[in-house]
Amino acid sequence: MNVAIVHEEILQGRPDSEDLLGQASLVTGALQALNFSHKIFTPGDSLTELYEFLGQMSEYSPTLVFNLVESHPRGQRLFPAFSGLLELAGFPYTGCPYDTLLTTTNKITAKSIMRACSIPTPGWHVFDGAVPPLRPHCHYIVKPSCEDASVGIDDTSIFTDRESLLKSLPEAYATHKQPLLIEEFITGRELNVSMLDHGNGKIEALPAAEIVFQDWPEDKPKIVNYAAKWLPRAFEYNNTPRQFNPPGIDTEYVKRIALSCWRAFGLRGYGRVDFRVDESARAYAIEVNANPCISHDSGYMAAAREAGYTETAVVNSIIEAALRK
Q1: Gyration radius of the chain over CA positions
Q2: Which residue among 19, 28, 30, 77 has its CA within the 20 to 30 Å range from the CA of 134?
Q3: Which helix or strand (DSSP H or E) is residue 2 part of?
Q4: What's the pLDDT at 114?
């Protein structure tokens, strides 16, 4: 079997982009263990470069494309287009299909789908230049609507009063150049559930993982911000260990919500749902992650190992799910 591993060009100095090298390393190692031949492609974004890429792919004639593309230089909302290109060209590829990537990339669309499917999710508003009808005593978190990897999220994203939030919105809107999701902030705990498609119709919810806010200052928001994910020297990075099957949470119920998200969004191969859990142990889905990071030290792979799977077994399952469609 010939497998083409495809990802965008790495942005030096951007750890959320450089992480692609770790993902490519994991996939390459697994393909070698499976005795599959492989080649890495990094297509550009211009029409000429994409035309050249399609020619290279036709020459290589892969059985499958392992799709690791997760951004686009002209804006995050455009990155799903690459999976559409693969579909139009007739190349089978791993992970979620175009329409799933499109709906999960836009947080506002994703929230609307969750609400329509009766999936518990915090209330929200949208800022696109017009003042939203915010509740005066509600806490909110503001997120760019079409970014992932916690890009644009830090401690200043949390607001406890309406006036300061309204004052901040025009500048944030100008900075991110996209609509803003203003989500009701659930004070409490954060956890996630990763899921694996075994290629035989069985979707497995892996052990639930709680992000523990260890030695956390009392006045510091308990959120997984950009620093917690990507900056090894940051306090947040070094004080947010994960624990599996956390006490005081009905993890089986949370897993059922995650699987409901899988069905509602049409995920394939692998995925993850992030949750906030309030002080009454009620769980709320806050984000559906299609094609989450699968580098060696990622949360997804940690959950897979907790469930007893090797990296090779995970990659093989993802491939089988792609070939089954």
Answers
A1: 20
A2: 77
A3: strand 2-6
A4: 98
